[in-house]
Amino acid sequence: MPDISILVDIADYYDISIPEIISGERKSEMMNEEERKIAKTMSDYATTEKEKIFKEMKLQSVMGVCALVLYWILHETGAYMYNDVLGKLTGYCETLVSVSVIMMAAFTTGSLSKVRSKSRKVFVFENFPKPMQLVVTAVVAFGGAAVIKLVLVYFFGL
């Protein structure tokens, strides 16, 4: 099955309807205008969702790379051992790298959108201001990364 965002283009190119593409059978000679509008709306929605996911992935990637570079610099120079603030920053960067990897995996598998839709039913998250949403998301992500790190250290000695 082709990507939903290109179904309209395929239908126009072959001069068939979207249901005909999906069913694999030719039923009519022309796609009616209502079907075309519905297909166009679906295509636009799918494209918008992809763009949103790509934007979030870029942000997570940039944050993870920056945290990794900063962690590497602090760790390799040994600066984290001589200053308490730099020690905490090193731990923060190490956790942020883990969180970024986890968040990218959640975005690419679609599990984050499932969690968001379930949390909206229980907890009215979208009514919070955007900065508060980011803070809550960061706290939850850091909590998850801390639990994973504790499990790795406790069970595997890493």
Entry keywords:
mainly alpha; membrane; transmembrane; 6 helices; 158 residues
What is this entry, summarized?
The chain crosses the membrane at residues 59-75, 95-113, 134-156. The chain is built from six helices and no strands.
Structural commentary:
About 80% of the residues lie in helices and about 0% in strands. The protein has about 160 residues and is an all-alpha fold. Helix 3 packs antiparallel against helix 4 and helix 4 crosses helix 6. The protein starts with 6 loop residues before the first helix and ends with a helix. Keywords: Membrane, Transmembrane, Transmembrane helix.
Largest sheet: none
The N- to C-terminal Cα distance equals 43 Å
Question: What is the mean predicted local confidence, pLDDT?
Answer: 76
Could you spell the SSE succession in H and E letters?
HHHHHH
Large-scale geometry: elongated
Helix-strand makeup class:
mainly alpha
Number of strands: 0
What is the rounded Rg?
Answer: 23 Å
What is the helical fraction, as a range of percent?
Answer: over 70%
| Count of helical regions | 6
Q: Beta fraction of the residues?
A: under 5%
Low-confidence stretches: none
Provide the fold topology.
Elements: H1 7-14, H2 18-23, H3 33-77, H4 84-109, H5 111-122, H6 130-156
Helix pairs in contact: 3-4, 4-6
